[in-house]
Each structure stands twice: as C-alpha cells, then as structure tokens.
Amino acid sequence: MAYAMQGALQQAVAAELQNPAGFAAPKRLNHLKTLEAESIYILREAVAEFARPVMLYSIGKDSSVMLRLAQKAFFPGKIPFPLLHVDTSYKFPEMIEFRDSYTREIGAELIVHKNQEALDQGANPFALGTQKCCGLLKTKSLLDALNEGGYDAAFGGARRDEEKSRAKERIYSFRDPLGQWDPKNQRPELWNIFNSRLNKGESIRVFPLSNWTELDIWLYIQTENIPIVPLYFAREREVVVRGASIVPIYSQNDLLPGEKSQRISCRMRSLGCMPCTGAIRSEADTLPKIIRELLGFKRSERENRVIDHDEEGSMELKKREGYF
Amino acid sequence: MSLHSANEHQDGFSTLVDHHLHKDMLRFTTAGSVDDGKSTLIGRLLHDSKSVYEDQLASVSKSRVNRSSGPIDFSLLTDGLRAEREQGITIDVAYRYFETPRRKFIIADTPGHEQYTRNMATGASTADLAVILIDATRGVLAQTRRHAYISSLLGIRNIVAAINKMDLLEYREDVFRRLYDDFLALAGQLNLSNVVGIPISALEGGNLVNPTGRMPWYHGPTLLEHLETVPVRAEVHQEAMRFPVQYVVRPDADFRGFAGRVASGTIRPGDAVMALPSQQMTRVRSIVTYDEAAAEAFSPMSVTLTLEDEIDLSRGDMLVTPENPPTVASRIDAMVVWFDAEPLAVGRTYLIKHSVRTSRAKAGAIEYRVNMNTLEQEPARELKMNDIAAVQFEIAKPLFFDPYERNRTTGSFILIDPLTNATVGAAIIRAALPAESSHETDWKTPVSAGEKHLRHGHEPALVLVESRPLLAQYLDRALFAQGFEVALVSGEDVPAGRLADLLPLSQSAGLVLIYSTGAISAEQKRALRLDAVRTFDLTALNLPEDDQGAVSTAVAALQSLRIAEGPADAGEVN
Interface pTM (ipTM) of the complex? Predict the structure, then answer.
C-alpha cells in the first residue's frame, strides 16, 4: 500500500514544483478520492435527512468498502446507524466468522435477521429452486427486517456496473410500502441533490457505491488496507467440480451421491450463498495478484452467481419485488 | 477491461495503480431522438473498446430479441429493463462505466422520447460533454433542438454532433456537411461553444472507435479519440469558497465539527470564514478527516471542519469566504425544467431543495416559456411536463446562491411537490429579483385589496361546506398546500347569522374562507345574502361521497380563482 501512495505523492509534489509562481496549483483529487468524497456526501446526506437509517451488510468486499466509507463520513464520531445482515443460513462459515469479529473490532452495532419460519419449513435452493429460495430467505427476510426495525432508509453496496438493471437505478431508490421498485417511475435525480421526502410506510434504498466499478473497489481495498473475508484470496481448498461450477466442500455431507471432492487452488470473486456461489480457479493470493487477475478477466463478476441467470431480466424481477 | 493493454511493466504494480488513480474521468451523456441509434452507439463503444465481458455478450447473442441487421444487437447491452428490450426503446437513464488506457468514462445513456425529457436533464446535470445524435436520414428534429437547448441550459461545455446512419446514405460528404451546418446554426443560437461534428455509422462501427475506409473525405478524430482527448471541465478551486454544512458531528462535549463537501474554492486552517445566514465571522481551526488532519480542502472533497469560535451553525447553513460572499435573496429568477404530469401553477407553494437546504417557495410569475421548435420566448400561464421556462420564485427563507454558470452546486435546486413528494422540476438560478418595491417606495399609499389578491395569486371567496366537517378540514389542507391563503371557520364558533360580519374582513384580506356548518335550509342560505361575494356552495356542486374525490373536485373548481400574472396574459384573465 505504502509504495502506491508514495508514487501519488511524488506526482503531486512534482506538479506543485512545475507550477509557475503566482498561479494557484491546478489541484485535482485522484479518481478513488473523488469517488470516496461522493460516497461520503451521500452517506451524510441520508443520515441527516432520514429518521431511521440502517446499512445492509452483506460481508462482501463492497460492504467492506461501504463500512470504511461510513467510518470516514462520521469520524471522529461512531457510525450512527446499525448494520443489518440478512442471514440465509447458507453463508460460508468464513463469512460469519469475519462478520462477527470485524464488526466487534470497529464497534459497530450488528443486527442479524433470518426468516426462521421458512428455514424451519426446510427452505433450501435444491428443493425450492434458486428463485423461490432467494425470495423467501433474502427478499422476504429483508423486507420483514426493514419493517420490524421501522427503517425508512437502507444503505446497500450495489454498483451500477454490476448488472444491466442496476445500471438504471438511482442513488436514492424509492420503494413503495411493500418495498417494491418501479423502474418506470423513478424520481429524477439531478446534480447531487437527493429527494428524501417520504409518506408513511415508504422507504428509500440508498446506494453510495453507485459510481464505483469492480476495479475501483479492489484498488480502494488495496490503497486503504481494508480487511476482507479470506475466501477472496486463492489457496488450495477442498472442492467438488459440479458442471461448470467449483463448489467448496466443508464436510462429506456436502457431496451429492457419486461426487468426489478434490483439492484445487481457487478463490471467490464475489460472495453469496454456498449452494449458489462458485469459486474460480486462481493462484491470486495477494491483493496485487487479484487486481492483475481482474484486469485480465474476460467474464463478469456475477457470472458465478446462479441467481442472476435464472432467466433474462431476473435481477430486475427480484428488485421489483424488493430485493436489493 | 482494457487496462491491461496500458504500457506497464510486468513488475510495475505501483505504476499500474498510479496510472489508474491519476487517469482523467470524463462524464458524458448521449441524447437523440427515438431510433437515432443511441443504445447501439454505446453498445458499440463498449464492445469495440473491449469493455464487454464474454458472458454479457453471450447473453445478448442468445437473446430472443434482435432488431439489428447484424448478428449482434448492440443496443441490448444497455437496454437493461424488460420493457425496453421488448419495445426496443430506452426508458430510463442508464449509467455505463468503461475505460481506455487514456481515460475513464461514465456514460449517462438517456432516452429520446419526449416524455422522458426529465431523464435527459438528469443525465445532462452531471455531464462534461454531450453526444447529440442526428439521424442522417431525418436531420435536425424538434428533439435535437430540445437536447441542444437542455445541454446549453445545464452548462455542458463540449458538444459532439454525431451524424449517424451514414451507411444508409452512401457515406456522402454533402449529407454530413449539410446536417453539420444545420446543427452549427442551432448551436450558434444557443451560444454552445466547442461543437465537433463526426460522421458515424453506429451499426457498422464506423468512426466510433476505429476509423472507417468508407469516408475518405473525413479527416477528423473518431468519436472515442475525441472523447479521450477533449479537455475536461476546469475545476472550481479558484472560485470563491462555498461550504454547505451537511451534518454536525458531535461525538462528545469536546468536539463539534461541521461535515460537508466543498462546493467551490479552497479552505485552509486559519482562513477567515463567514457563516450564513447568521453572518457571524470566525476562523477555520482544523480540517478533520479519518486519515489525517488535512492542510487544505478543495472541491469536491468531503471533510469535517472545526472552527475557532462557538457560532450558530447547523445543517443547511453555509460557510463562505467573507471577501466574496454569495448573493442572498428571497426573490429569484430561475430557469425551470418541469417534469410532472400535474402542471406548475402560478401561486402554488412547492418545496425546493437547494444544495442541502430545503425550504418553501412560491411560484410567482412565469416570465416566458421557451418554444422548443422555434426556441422563441412565449407567454404561459402554467408549465406542462417537459416545458422549460423562466419563473420567479419567492422563497420562505433567503437563499444563498451563485449564478449557475459560476457554480453548479450553489446555483441549482430541485422542486418537490409537498403533497406527493415527487421531484417535479429542476431549476438553475439566474439572478436575484429586487425585493418587492412597493414596500420601500410607496410607504404612504394604502394597500388595496387588489394588491393583496395579486400577491396571494388568487381572488378571495367563500366556500360553504355543509355537514362534512372532515371534508372542510381536508380542503383547508389541500388549498393551503397549493399556495392559497385560507381560513377555516366552524359554524360552532360563528353561527350562520353572524357570517355576514366576517365576510368583509376575509374579503379585504383576500382569503378563501371555508365555512363549515351543519345543514342549512335554502331559505337560511338566501338570508345570508351570499350573492355579495364569490361563493362556492359545495352542496350545489354534487361532490363525490368519498372525501378524497370530493377534495379534488372542489380544489379543481377553485382553480378559477387564480390570477394570471404578467402583462402577456392580461387578455386571458376571465
């Protein structure tokens, strides 16, 4: 990290020296600092105007960045809202471990919500199919948690470069009392002025990372030294190769009849639920290696996410129903 | 991703990071009429600059829909909503991100349909450059004029006139010349500078990323070359310092910091600053950030300031440089783009959000509306969806602002409907208007009823509500929200027989008096001699049973009380 910033510093000093006397230096924030400043502005604006904001914390790399931005926005104060994790109970054990230790370390208030009723009835993606499973364990669970907490604003780490329907979403995304998104009737969003006015029961999803790209996220994690779940780093893992997917195995019970596990050097490019998130073959065990690998990728980061590909437009449908 | 093609050394990771961090960013918007080929153009730019992943391209290739004549419909890469793919149009602003070894780009892809003009304005509000597509087979259309006008209004300094579909006209130079000249004439009318014309074929990719051999007569840059090299908008560090206070950080009794984003100028510890609206003076003690105390802060940094003195300062206030403060005024003149199906009504009160401050504002006279076909100014009594007009506003709390061309942040605001909460318009501030002169010059002249009516924007009237006290209360709220001066009087407080004593007062004050009473007979009504004042007898209006329906019917009837302002409309007043 240090050497990267040193380079930036040298450039800034050089620019300062080259500047003829009598003129103010043509200052420019670097690209990541510009994104950071915008995100902090959005976080502060929402906290100032909403009665009960909450941050959706998914434990992934984007959530890690969003959390750091929240620390920065309210420094030296604490993060003035709770974090909400919608736990499907199908998350990787490393994720839960990271969630508990990291939120404790930074002193954030964490709320964990599960759709216990659906889980008790045995909801799982194999029996229900991924769409219905997501509907019950993520969307419904999320809407219930937001209702129970009476939250009028929820921060989410979604980026517009992730998926086609997300590219259409506002930074302040208005939701009706059922949490639904109406893409044809979004509030115009001009300049950096956000309309936070709500009637009873309505809410806003706020996306401070809207303008970040996957590469920006990784470079920021690198330059800011932000802790992330170890699953993002490559190492030899016990996995089973299932069709085109590489699925980590935690016990022999995870294997389907006739399957055999093997050890492959792999990592996660994005994190979701265990049954629906595949690993990629990789040797990238450091941030610089991950970033280099990213620059060579020919396929998108959500490719290993089953839920986006159920049918064309499936993310839009989920969002209309209230999914993040 | 095409970053890997940047000339970095195998081991130069820090060089790579540096290179990425210090790339310029260009935000541009694309505009054009329906079917001008915007989405195809962007899909092509992304594809030919190698910014599309294989799986994304594969999902487009296997799509059921293909409206292009080639194997891949590039517009499907950007049209992300189901309705868009099915109807083959772009509905909402889509933001696209791509980069080349030279620059990073954010594209706001905006729709061409007139009903989505608001989205065009949304995309343009943050853009440094606009690509305006002109279909070579159709020429400059009303939508082209609208888009050029919005680009000019929102201060976009660089315009590309992309003359598309050259493939359909045999790549003829005379076609390009004629259309480019047409556009330059339009640009001249709008004071748009830095206009560049590029002949392209989005469908075949000609002159987007790579030059085409089909137009040997064209020697200019391809679209991407131009986007990579056009000078990016100058930052506003040299401008006067403006720091809108967003949030007060107060973790304990010892620390009181003012969080915000620098809108313009530079702030250093020790600088003298003035707080608005209090006009109290103090100095900056420190610039606090999570990383370290900063030696200076400039736009667009988000920081937290501590001050030398305990002064009155909270969210919505502004710290400014005392040498060069903004204009402070409560009557202003602004150009408005109207978004809502419900028209902007003169005399109605709206909420405005200016920077981080929300206040009430009453729409005063509409000075003129811009005719999008002729770009001429014409009179108007109200603004319909997509209208652009010069409107006067009277703001409840004085506004601190700079003209939009000097400062986008302090020179713009949005309009919010206080009832529906919808964002109904966007405005850029042109200038302060003088405080109403009659107060200062004619202090001996008695105030006439007519002057009061003019200021309220409506004539006085009596509204008679029988046996529906809740309806009276709802109506009071609805009229108040629309900017009417209302008084609600109950028959329990003032018996019907005494109403006559009250009327001269409400008439001379110019009020709409809602009189809520039990049922009264026709004979009693006659005794009230209501013919002396303008009366709305709601019983005679046959209102719907439900209160909501009844309120909207009554409010609609009362619109006839409004006074159109301005000499241009004088002939139309009933």
Answer: 0.84
